[in-house]
Amino acid sequence: MADQVFFYRLSRKFVDEQFDVPEEAKEVMYYSLAIGHHLGIVDCLSADLVCPLTGYRDWVAKLEAGSEARRK
Question: What is the CA angle 19-20-26, rounded to 5?
Answer without folding.
Answer: 95
